[in-house]
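A note from the maintainers: we've had questions about how concatenated examples are separated. There is no special marker in the raw files; a new sequence line simply starts the next protein. For clarity in this README we add a label.
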Amino acid sequence: MLSLVNEKIKLFLILLAVTSFSLINTARALQAPPYDLEARFVQIEKDKLFILWITPHKDWYFYGPQKRNIGQPTTITAWLGNKPLPVFYPPTQAKKDYFNPATTVQAYTKKTPFFIKLPTSYSTNSNSNLKIKIRMLLCSPTSCYPVNAQFNFLLQNPNSKLAPAWKSLWEQSQVLPPDFKAESALPGLEVSSLGKAMLLGLIAGFLLNFMPCVLPVLGLKLRSFQNLSKEEQKEKSKEFRLHNIFFILGVLIYFSALGIFLAYTKLNWGAIFQNSLFILATLFLLFLLALSLFGFFTLPILNLKANVKHPYLDSFLTGLLITLLATPCSGPFLGGVLAWSLLNSPTVILLVFISIGLGLSLPYFLVALFPKTIQFFPKTSKANLILEKIVAFLLLGTCIYLLSLLPEDLYLKILISLSIVFFLFWLKKELDLPTSWPKLLFNILILLSIILALFWTNLRPDKPQIWINYEPNYFLSQLGKKNILVDFTANWCPTCKFLEKTVLTETFLSRIKTNYHLLLIKVDLSQENPAGEEFLNSLNSKSIPLVAIFTAHAPDKPLIFRDFFTQKMLEKSLQEKLSPPQNSP
């Protein structure tokens, strides 16, 4: 009897839940949509445009088309008969999200026009039917309202009048790239599970130790100590282990923080090096560290002397610095790992980044577990001092590398600034100021000179040569008409530069451009480039280097190359995809 009552109660609760859900949906359906639509067919010179204005009600906004937004991106599709038409989205504005004020989103907050471009061959007397589908999410301080609606408009009697403000927005609007079904040239290195991502992340992290970002500063990881008596060897091994543990801690904390940062900002790997001022600041930091190792002053980092005031802080900060320098690198396996993980949840991203950090730290885990390897390190103070100077020269070499990432017209200004900083530190050392106040004033003078040097530039991106700069409207106008090779690169990406010097050379590019009738397009991510980043994301990728081949006969299925590849691999794929004439030279 009791079980029968319980079954009836369960049935009643299920019916109550279903009824409540239905009532909520009915009420939502009856609610007036919190936006207004307005449309107009216009002709501006040779452009035939259908303009759709969306106006959110007071205190409402709808999200922009960027996929990195928290809410649902706005998507507008249009067809003239069975033919899809390009939709141009105007610029968005940054806004604090109502439900997560700590997060900034790209949104539309006022009357916004979306431009649908008709074919130039379209006759204005056709009176055709235009179908438009809108998917968006509007939000207010208290609720959100999803929209998934389709509208039909009759095209007739275009108007030639349009307010200057709308014309200006038309000139600023851009077509967004579609979601491509990219195929990897090396499918075995693509990632589809957390286990594979963490395993390849571990391997990729280990290989970062030998990449050009980190290899020049391998000496920074060496720890050396004074000669100790045999009775003190046990204590020395313990201290050696602690040094490595703090170094590993610095690496893991940086990678964990970077993973969380990228998960919530939706930025790409190495994006911090898009900022030329950041590169310049890093260059000055390494220059100061080199001066420190040459004995001009002392910093709690990279200090290889035996008597270090804060030895564990020094090891921890060294771990942070090494990982910072590794950030712009993309070694073998890393591209596929990042492409998959950065499109997943914050938890997955954090776990994968920790695995990369563990891979980078692997040699130092082994040293921490077997501290007797200390016998292979320098044992005399003289050897330590020599090692310290070698590391200083390696740091200066890294400064030269960072300088090469910046525009050439800045070289003279940067070298003059570094010379002034060097002169001030040399003068301070030679004067040997006796009291604290003169020292403080001199330090303030040096600090001001460094700050002024950082802003004494007019940063401009490098000019392309053989490549055409990526421009969304132009790219989409050529997509499906020509064979296109797209290179995603950046000045701060050393792997990209290595490929440009060894694989994507001008001779090779000129030959394949002629043989395969290629259009060469470069997406430069050296500076912040929202359109380029959207394009990269549309290929399900979050890291560079990346090369994509779009064929004229199957433009929606590009072939992509990540990280490292050879001219032979690239040309073999071109032969398979494009099949040039046999008599091509």
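[label: protein 2]
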Amino acid sequence: MQPQLLDGRYQIERLLGDGGMARVYLGRDLRLNRPVAIKIPHPHLMTDPDFLARFRHEAHAAAMVSHPNLVDVYDVGQDGDQHYIVMEYVAGSTLKQLINREAPFAIPRAVRIGEQIARGLHAAHRAGLIHRDIKPQNIIVTDDGQVRITDFGVAKSHLSTAMTETGITLGTVDYIAPEQAQGRPATPQSDIYALGVVLYEMLTGRLPFTGDTPVAVAMKHISEPPPPPRRYNPHIPAALEAIILRALAKDPALRQRSALELAEELRSYEQLVTQATVVNPGVEPPAQGRPAAPPRPAQVTASRPAAIPSPRPTTARAPRQEGLGCGVFLVGMLTLAGVLAVVFVVSSGMLNNLFGNPSRPPTTQLPNGQSTEVAPSPTVVATVTVPELVGRSDGEARSLLQQNKLVPMPSSEHNRTVPQGIVITQAIPPGTIVEENSPVSYTVSLGPLLVEVPNVTGTRQDIARNQLAAAGLVVNVVEEPSQRVDEGFVIRQSPSATLRIPQGDTVTIYVSLGDVVRFPEVIGRSRAEAEAILANTPGLTLVFVDVQGRDRLPNFDRYAPNEVVSAARVVGNNEVIGINNGDYIPRGSSIVLGVRAEE
């Protein structure tokens, strides 16, 4: 239960949200009489000195940044063992709520929202603060369209030395930058990438990458190009699509150099569209690649009489011929003779002797007057057989190819099952006959890809699973009671954080069931045994034994006399809830046993 008043100043009114590290409450600053948002870490994190140091440090770093598109931090304090951050309360909807209701957005609206996010990020980046978890859930949009970035809870300042600087320990997989998914440190370009995903989602109503598991989504961020947003929304102009795809470049160096540059690109685009609308409202621009029609000449409205066109000249006809005449007969005969002459020249081969015929082989004159054609000598091409390379070492493969007068073309990739330096595949199957000096491509194993185990101790189970899956690790969950860690949060992990293990290995997380006690195996035992077991079980108290006769116990004869047939725990207003052997129930529960009566 949270205290209702912090430091005699901040009145807590109601819960606004529950995150992986803290809860956020709506409160009131009694001194200044204004609403505020109060962030309080989860109780089990209050005893973690590393977390508290980071909590205070990042709060102070965020408080140093003031910008119209960032939620202001007013105060950082401690009341007894209760740490808290007091922030500006912004009334509005999250961008995610708006996307779910209204996407795809109109293009001017999405551009304006994106520009405001970019300007807020630029202010944070100038102060050395990287958000690392930009997503629509952390963007608040007021009713008048103002955008505010909130929740710098996973942010990293350039002064911080927290363990979460390396590895994929924080953030959301749907918006994660490729370098973060690969375990490299986040940079301002990582926030730009996440904003590119947000722009994509606003304009298409969908994410660029989806998958059945978080690791599938993370791998797509790393290796697959995003589908062009115009595939899903053809109304997106090509220039705006280019801005978004640049922000989504896999290589951070190919993205916008800063969030300010992205903001200016969006501003320039919006101004260009606005100017085009003002200059020629309601008129569509000519289609790209089609020349515009030339302007029509102005019509003459003066009273000058129009010129009368001159009459068209008539074409003189030749006098009509009544007969063919001898002239026509002579022309026909000459034409026929010319055609016959051309046929004779072509068929006799005279043109071949004149111009040469490269396609016809030379002839040799024999003594008897006959001739024979001399066939050209064929070109001899040296060939070799491609050897088997798979399973050999890279050095052996190179030597073997060179001995066979072939050119080695190696490449490499990580592989969990094939040892480092061994050939996995080859492009040309063994036994294939190819020309000498042909290139032969093959792939050499780099061994398993090693990744750093994220530190998920103290985080909520769903967040821990996402972070481990994003690192390419398999998650095994073991639930157990804990008196010091809240229900649903990770108590410990194995292997421990910062170790480098092969991608695809299993990490076990032990998740708290809360302060509960496992009900012992007493149902089915005798009353005496059950009472003894409960007496030695800390956290449980036997308060009543309900002896049930034949009139109250169904199947009475199935049980032995004094056998425990049921169990329950007492809740408010003396009501009881049935329990079974092995159930986890709250510590301090009062237990009622049902026992078969003797006859």
